[in-house]
Amino acid sequence: QTREESGKKKLKTLTAAETEKRPSNSVRVRAPVLPPAPPQTSLPRPLSAVAATASTRHSLPPMAMATAMGATAATYGAPIPAPAPAAFSPHRAAGGRRVRAVTARPRPLFSPRAVSDSRNSQTCLDPDASTSVLGIILGGGAGTRLYPLTKKRAKPAVPLGANYRLIDIPVSNCLNSNVSKIYVLTQFNSASLNRHLSRAYGNNIGGYKNDGFVEVLAAQQSPENPDWFQGTADAVRQYLWLFEEHNVMEFLILAGDHLYRMDYQKFIQAHRETDADITVAALPMDEERATAFGLMKIDDEGRIVEFSEKPKGEKLKAMMVDTTILGLDSERAKELPYIASMGIYVFSKDAMLRLLRDNFPSANDFGSEVIPGATEIGMR
């Protein structure tokens, strides 16, 4: 065997291992030899979120707004969009090591379409809510009834819908109602809540002028007041010096741990049309659940004539009223004979300052002290 024949055999062996044979003909094409692929380092695509759309077929019960001058029925309006992709998406890098990579920051529950629709709707506040209303969201108490979910977090920070928290519901309602100046008062287990708000809401929140904000106000001690927040009214009182600096007409007081949908513009409009000092959002309620709410009696004009916080026994029976005044039929009114406060209030700015500083400087709670007291002194 000659050296030339041996070289031809070796060449034939190499090309057979490195070439690809086409089925249409027997021509052999040499395939390029590529280096090994590097380890996978790119982030996986996040799971897509299901888009939520507002639909008129999803009807919700009417909300009655008991004001000092009249009771007005309204329906909830602003849609709440679906959750965004999860904030953290774990994947495995080279060598099987588990890596946690940031893929998306929580997005605020803000729907530009809802704001656009509200601007074109019949609800037209003058002046606009973005400049005339200050939203104040109360961070809630210790949350003992939700334990152990609240072992290390405040009630408004309890997860909801994957990447959201309960606090996002009232914030979303505010933004979709064009209320873009929002303070959140926190106290118990507030680290998780503060972290979520700082990540989810930037400086350019609400409105087209980017002059809105969502700001956390933590409980604090001062030489004038060495105590922490003693209740809902006391929490607002301790920061009145800050709230009164805003050139607004009303304070919108909200709870940070409630799950509902509501257009606050209709609520505020009813407050202004009736020239009320305080307006309370209310719902008709059955007897079984009535003991967990503040109950009220109203006259034919919707004026609050009596208010009782979480009554029981004979006091509960005494708060029974004819709820047909709220627009219910007679049969439904028998099933829901009480008017319950939702813990949502609109205070005229001057009325809030007078009540918390002059009339009731030691009152700690809106439901059990301030609202009943305002009724007794004849506020509208």
UniProtKB/TrEMBL annotation:
Which pathway does the protein contribute to?
Glycan biosynthesis; starch biosynthesis
Q: Where does the UniProt entry say this protein principally localizes?
A: plastid
What are the alphabetically sorted keywords of the record? Allosteric enzyme, Amyloplast, ATP-binding, Chloroplast, Nucleotide-binding, Nucleotidyltransferase, Plastid, Starch biosynthesis, Transferase
Give a yes or no for keyword DNA repair in this entry. no
InterPro entries named among the record's database cross-references: ADP-Glc_PPase, ADP_Glu_pyroP_CS, NTP_transferase_dom, Nucleotide-diphossugar_trans
GO MF terms here are: ATP binding; glucose-1-phosphate adenylyltransferase activity
Which stretches does the entry tag as region Disordered? 1-46
Please give the catalytic activity noted in the UniProt record.
alpha-D-glucose 1-phosphate + ATP + H(+) = ADP-alpha-D-glucose + diphosphate
SUPFAM superfamilies per the record?
Nucleotide-diphospho-sugar transferases
Function of the molecule: This protein plays a role in synthesis of starch. It catalyzes the synthesis of the activated glycosyl donor, ADP-glucose from Glc-1-P and ATP.
Know the name of this protein? Answer: glucose-1-phosphate adenylyltransferase
Q: Which organism is it from?
A: Aegilops tauschii subsp. strangulata
